């Protein structure tokens, strides 16, 4: 690695998105990489250290640790992983806690012209790999012999997915890093495709060879089955059901894979084919 390389500091280095960004930076060889995590002694952290990543400890809830983690760092580009303004898009009809937290940061950035001029807002779509999560995976209903997916939305709800986040966030990160003249100050939507809920379960059934069906249930029932997780995911799904094609839009043009000349993404078909 070039010892004169610029420093890139990645928060959440051992997570899905952070790990993918680090993979992109390692692949390019153009940066010194600092990974920020809560536990530098974890196996995931040690694996990154073995690849030449400088791992440091910090906690989002302790400002002093963050200050230390960013020592010797300047700010040229800030890639902020966020989501659309769901309240504005839905006319105030929807409230999603984790969306609201991110939007507060968006507003802070946009009020600081200098910071805004260095920021890329990265919207990462639904993880296609989440199909294995308990509240999303189709479950076998023995009495009918089918695998049933329960969701609190209609079966024509559009789902915009990043596909495989471990692979595709890497691809988008490389595109962002290599085209700063295009991406700085802009919104980038990381997605592989948009499919409707019924289409997704039908694809899963066809690829797995398992008979499946889709059943809409009330949000409170969904949340009772999978407390807290069910509500957060359910609220997100209901926003997408209402907003539909406006779900991933803003008052400004949003950069897409076509704008960034991105190809080679791993989509839902490939994800389902890789499952056991």
From TrEMBL:
One Pfam family in the UniProt entry: NmrA
Keyword Chaperone among record annotations: no
Transmembrane spans: none
Keywords (A to Z) from UniProt: NADP
InterPro entries according to UniProt: NAD(P)-bd_dom_sf (IPR036291), NmrA-like (IPR008030), NmrA-like_oxidored (IPR051164)
NmrA-like domain sequence ranges: 5-73, 75-228
Cellular component terms (Gene Ontology): nucleus
Family to which the UniProt record says this protein belongs: Belongs to the NmrA-type oxidoreductase family.
Protein name: NmrA-like domain-containing protein
Organism: Penicillium solitum
Upper classification of the organism: Eukaryota, Fungi, Dikarya, Ascomycota, Pezizomycotina
